[in-house]
Prior knowledge:
Blueprint: E1 7-9, H1 14-24, E2 28-31, H2 37-42, E3 50-53, E4 63-66, E5 69-73, H3 78-83, H4 85-90, H5 92-100, H6 104-109, H7 112-118, H8 125-131, E6 135-139, E7 144-148, H9 149-152, E8 153-155, E9 158-159, E10 166-173, E11 178-186, E12 189-198, E13 202-207, E14 214-215, H10 217-226, H11 232-242, H12 256-280
Parallel strand pairs: 1-3, 2-3
Antiparallel strand pairs: 4-5, 5-10, 6-7, 6-10, 8-9, 11-12, 12-13, 13-14
Flavin-adenine dinucleotide (FAD) is lined by residues 29-37, 54, 74, 101-102, 106, 109-111, 113-115, 117-118, 123-125, 166-167, 188-189.
Amino acid sequence: MRPDPFTYHQPQSLAEASSLVAELGDGATFYAGGTELLLLIKMQLAKYDHLVNLKKIDGLRKIAVEHDRLVVGALATHNDIALNPTVSKHCPSLSRLCGEIANIRVRVAGTIGGNLCFAEPRADPPVLLAALDAEMRLVSAHASRVVPASEFFLGPFETAREPDEILTTIEIPLGTGTASVERMKQGNYSLATAAISRRERHQTWIGFGGGPPKRLGGTGALLDRDYGRTSEEALFAAVAEDIVDLEIPSDIEAGESYRRHLIAVAVKRALASLHETEATGVH
Ligand SMILES: Cc1cc2nc3c(=O)[nH]c(=O)nc-3n(C[C@H](O)[C@H](O)[C@H](O)COP(=O)(O)OP(=O)(O)OC[C@H]3O[C@@H](n4cnc5c(N)ncnc54)[C@H](O)[C@@H]3O)c2cc1C
């Protein structure tokens, strides 16, 4: 399908970009790699009269360590992150994940910020970033604020970002711990994603295609108690208990009970991957 005509804006600063979207209202949105947005527009699932390109704004693609944090610019593509030596040194789970997302055509154009702001419920980075205690920096023409990844995602395609706020960086505290992420993939996307971080305490987070990433408190507590000795039976029971009240989708790709099983398998694999990383020191 041909998209309806729109005006393409190329602001040079964050203030200019944010003001444009604030002034133009609902008919305007930010544009990064376009891998989600252009599909929606072409399929006429979304209509915008104005696209505000963020790619001309300096500094949004940087990746650096600053004050004990890994700072990833929102305009960094999945490929930038996967190939960046600073990310592979300080946050190997993120570099591995970004190297596996989608296909090379999407990875060279699609940005981490676009992935997070789109909030597709099957997306993988939100799950890992929640487990890593990452924070999102949001900037508008008048203000700047930081939102923890655990509070950024509100539901399918819904985040805490206001329409005129630009996600500028994702900031990951650097600790001495390790982290892992595993996906149960079907087609382009994951049916279930699990991430485990092992810092002062264990954090286990899942994505299940139906809502924001969810923290599995009982599973984390089990790992705090029994790390290295956890039986598969105990792990599956803890996950099942943690997700018992979750509304898990059932659709043409997978039924609810199969998805519940896949969530447990993803957690099991993430745990095995964490053990392997720690045993071999090879991330
Ligand atoms: C074939 C295919 C396979 C995929 N497989 C996976 C997968 O396995 N796992 C996974 O997690 N994802 C997957 N994706 C999703 C992919 O990661 C996203 O399409 C990509 O990251 C979106 O980034 P973008 O820069 O293209 O965003 P755009 O399409 O440019 O923007 C998406 C949305 O975010 C907003 N936005 C973008 N950047 C910002 C910003 N900095 N501040 C504020 N708002 C912003 C836009 O206004 C728009 O609403 C897949 C996508 C495709 C097409």
